[in-house]
Amino acid sequence: MSNISSTTGPSSASTIRGYGGLASGLDTDSLIKGMTIGIQAKIDKQEQSKQLLEWKMEACRTISSAMINFSNKYTSYTSKNNLSSASFFARNNIASVGKNSGCVSVTGGLSGAASFSVAGVKQLAMDASATSASAASDQVLRTGLIATDLTTERTINNLEGETLTFTYGTESYAVKLETGTMDGIEYKYDNMANATASINKALSNVSVGTGLTLADIMTVTADDTKFTLKELDAHGNLLALKSGSDSVLADMGFTADSAITVGGITGTEAILSHPEKTSDLLAGKSISFTYNGITKKLTMPAADQITTMDRLMEDVQRSMGSAFGSGRVKVSLNTVGEYSSFSFAAIRPDGSPDASSVLEISGADSGLLGPDGILGISAGESNRLNLGASLLESGLAAGLGTKTESDPLLLTINNVEIQGLTYGSTMKEVMEAINKTEGANVEISYLANADKFTFKSTASGASGNVEIGGESASVFGSMNSVSGQDALVTVRYTGSNETMDIVRGTNTFTLDGLNVTVKSAFGYTEAPAGVFTEVPDNEEIQFTATVDSDEIVGSVKQMIEDYNGILDMVNSQLSTKRNRDYLPLTDSQKEEMTDDKIEKWEGKTKAGLLFNDSTLRSLYDDFRFLFSSGSADKAALGTMGISVSTSYSDNGKLVLDETALKRAIESDPESVKDVFTRTENKTTGEAGGLMAKISTILKEYAGTTGASKGILIQRAGSASAPASVLNNTIQKEIDSAERNVERLKDQMKLQTDRYIKKFTSLETLISQMNSQSSWLSSALG
């Protein structure tokens, strides 16, 4: 198929216009194509040249990307496999030895491991803390007040929580009429003014693209009784009120599929609310409870079965038993005069309180939850503290007496006063204020499952303190405090018979270059307090250290594989000859071929674009001759199991003898480290090690930092050097080809238009002559 013509048609020519040879019988389209074929050939040639350049750029970037990845992986100080770093070759395995070895662990350098032993751990470090002595909450989940007489009517808002659907152009947008306060904005629908403001706020929450919301497209206005919907700027799109949930459209005075115009549409009288019995409001509604992570939905009985609060309580109790098991949740009714409330408490099957179980209201049907809901309780409230409620309403077990929300809350932590709190503050605000107060030096948290507060000193060990004062008892109850203490570790240095105590504020610390973690005490008993006596037959912990040769060998092995992969990639590009019979396909040629044939053709076209390329040849030679023949480093690497393959077909690949390398690491780790990590010293003339030499080549050809980028980066650009993507040698050639194509297309259009004009004139003239001939024939009979 290599004989496909590259000039099979004007793929970018102007559309041919005119009479199309109707009068003359000429195939004017074909004639014009033939007359402009020379220009089309030039266009195709430039397009093909551009395509070849793009593929050449892609081939260069593939090589430079592999080199950049290699550099990031093996020569970057942020990589865990940085073979240029001396610390990589200092990786080791340090083992604790002795019957008490599990009490202490150590990591670090080889030399430090033999410098000391641990004779005992007298005590572990412990931060000062304080924890609630009893439950922080009363462990009861309560509803708000409900009218005891279930026939009592409530005023129900018709709009809140409902959804309006608008169509704008071809898209539909749902607008939720939010309830309560969302993102600091209060939504209310109790009168026309508040309802109008809330609907417009809801419109502003719905994006219609290009930075616009529905509030930019339309607005809602109202008088005392009616809403009006007006189009502001629909940008040429049709705008309409499509539908609404339940009866919200009728309540607003509109019908479905109402077009909204600039002049606006006004509905009939709006009905914002209606009265409804409490029993009807509860009937058939569902409430979701979560008990110890398991969520169940409970459905209220029908209206004719909700006759009294006592009967409703019994029904809810049965539902709780069915959902979570009999005797797990106790439902109680609390009635005071005209109002009642339900309370829920976790219990054990024997009826005793269950302090370990958490019961939460996780959701409910519309109208039940929220401050204005029938139940007067919000989703998320539980039989634990409500951190988002004021202290007075959070469910604290500690009695707050006659305090009001405006009363100041006086708290001191470690003799530092916590500012700006009142009994109207939420528990979350109280905790945040404590944690942020400079000088208090504690962190407070609430453990919901345990239902306890815990304070922890931010100062480690014996330096920390937790002292809670002021009115803390009324909020946190009594606390169990634990004093901070330091770790006391007894060590014996090599060559000495004396021991010494190491005092640290944490159980993990650095000692003589080693990272030491003490896990439990051993070797000493404490009696009396602060006096330690060594136990009989105490055995000290010794440490043995070995180089982590497996880790090092594994990384070197992977590095050599990646290095050889780059060599293969470069050699493949250099040695693959280009078949010049295969040129990039034109658009018209592609139209005549299947996708599979196009893919195969382009594969052959791409091959050999960098054949015998001088830049790649230099790169390849630099890689092959890292070390000159007979050099000391080449010989040293050979003894470590790293050599250049003697096989001609391997083209200079590195070969690794893992056993020899491992043996070298374990017998002489310093020499291995030196031959890999040594840097070049121009003053002394000392040559760099293996990774330094590789790094020099990587920087020369694929360097992405500094004022001067690598040769391949300057030639073809790289995403790792963003400025080079559009500013490189090949890209400039591509830009030149694109300009040539545009110039030739303009020339094609001018020439095509000129021929169209001439053929159009010819067709007009022939048509006139035909008309005259017909008239003469008719006149002469």
Automatic annotation (TrEMBL):
Alphabetized UniProt keyword annotations: Bacterial flagellum, Cell projection, Cilium, Coiled coil, Flagellum, Secreted
Domain spans labelled Flagellar hook-associated protein 2 N-terminal: 24-125
Matches recorded under InterPro entries: FliD, FliD_C, FliD_N
Coiled-coil boundaries: 727-754
Quaternary structure, from the entry: Homopentamer.
Functional description taken from the UniProt entry: Required for morphogenesis and for the elongation of the flagellar filament by facilitating polymerization of the flagellin monomers at the tip of growing filament. Forms a capping structure, which prevents flagellin subunits (transported through the central channel of the flagellum) from leaking out without polymerization at the distal end.
Name this protein carries in UniProt: Flagellar hook-associated protein 2
